[in-house]
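Methods, example record. To illustrate the input and output format used throughout this study, we show the complete record for 2-isopropylmalate synthase. The sequence lines were provided to the predictor; the line carrying structure tokens was produced by it.
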Amino acid sequence: MANNIIIFDTTLRDGEQSPGASLDINEKVQIARQLALLQVNVIEAGFPVSSPGDFESVKRIAREVRGVSVAGLARAVEKDIDSAAMALEKAEKPRIHIFLATSEIHRKYKLLKAKEEIIHLAVKAVKYARKYVDDIEFSPEDASRTELDFLVQVVEAVIDAGAKTVNIPDTVGYAVPDHYAALIRGLKEHVKNIHKAIISVHCHNDLGLAVANSLAAVKAGAQQVECTINGIGERAGNAALEEIVMALKTRQDFYHCSTRIVTKELIATSKLVSTLTGLRVQRNKAIVGENAFAHQSGVHQDGVLKERTTYEIIKPEDVGHLKTRLVLGKLSGRHALKERIKELGYELSEEEFERAFKEFKHIADKKKRYLMRILGLLLVSRKWKFLLFSN
Ligand SMILES: [Zn+2]
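The corresponding predicted structure is encoded as:
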């Protein structure tokens, strides 16, 4: 199956807008190198005109990172586009990403501009950017709250002006899956030249729906997904790259598409981003959380030990986890304890095991903590003792 979904990573642009996250230039370059290893298709490296630091980091990433497109963000004004073009000069595959708000709320309160003027500015900006590069992406900001007929006009006009990708952002996280999918289908149906451009989606997680909305859009025909590592980003964040990629991979039977992402690099990338931004990943986070492949219930542990797929839909190794983790706690059963004792290199008779199991249950119960993990098992003068360490 062709790798037909383009993964556009915006960890270094939208992700860095996370309250509390700020990266220096070297850290950004380090993350960009890891993203190239992960084989994302596009790295949005920053917003060059916004600060000298952003300009410099886009410039360095453009110069040093190979095998991916590098994008720089710009408003629909010449000085932004000039700055993005200068920063991207040495990129192997440069992309200028222009945005301009189109929704009524933004037109009325932020831009104070009429519809005709918005179309005029968008077209002018795309044409201007074409002087520098071929690969232009245009985003009608707040697209999901824009009137469909006006959005159709804007998208058609920017494609005519030369935009190769049209991104339909759910800037404020307002969309829900059925609505967002219908929006994508509406554009495919009404924009006459839509076949000349890639439809991209960019979702925010204000209602916890960023990934669901992105996937619904893919099903409706979107070919590029914009996302960030660990789902970091403005406010509640962006669609999480690792969740998008693994949903498409795990449910290929349903989506019939794939990405070129080297999924074994997901954990390493997640850890790097979390360490450098200081934004910790919650334990129960899908795919990359510490508990994503940990089982504690005795019934589940027994099932996984008999056949992994009884309770696991993804092989932990496929995303870079070492392996399934069976957490020993008060709900664990004989099977899991037996396995752990074997791993630790001990062989017990049936009678010894029963004694050990009883004592283990006793201690686990007393501790009453799910986080308890048995790390060691010691034999002291023919009497089993368990060392429990909390983590
Ligand atoms: Zn955004």
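Annotations derived from this record:
The longest strand covers residues 93-101.
Residues 14, 169, 171, 202, 204, 234 surround zinc ion (CB under 6 Å).
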